Amino acid sequence: MKISVNIDCTPEEARAFFGLPDVQPMQAALLAEMEKRMLAEMDRFAPDALLKNWLSSVSQSPDQMRETFARMFQQGFGR
Fold first, then answer.
1. Is position 4 within any domain?
2. Phi-psi region of 46 (alpha: psi -120 to 50; beta: other; left: phi over 0)
3. Of 46, 71, 45, 75, which Cα lies nearest the Cα of 58?
4. What is the pLDDT of residues 6-20, one digit of tens each?
């Protein structure tokens, strides 16, 4: 004997039928908090902010930067 039962309901209705908790408000709050944190930290990873952070140890003067690179290239070529 073979019995087949088709149930047509939404996931919310199935959760309520089985007595499972509704986690949508908690999930919405969690996603809103994650979005807020991501948007707050997004400015730190902008290209200009990254370059300023990476190049902060390098002198700001173009002449000093050119001399530093020239020294590195000369050392690399053994001069």
1. no
2. beta
3. 71
4. 989 998 899 999 999
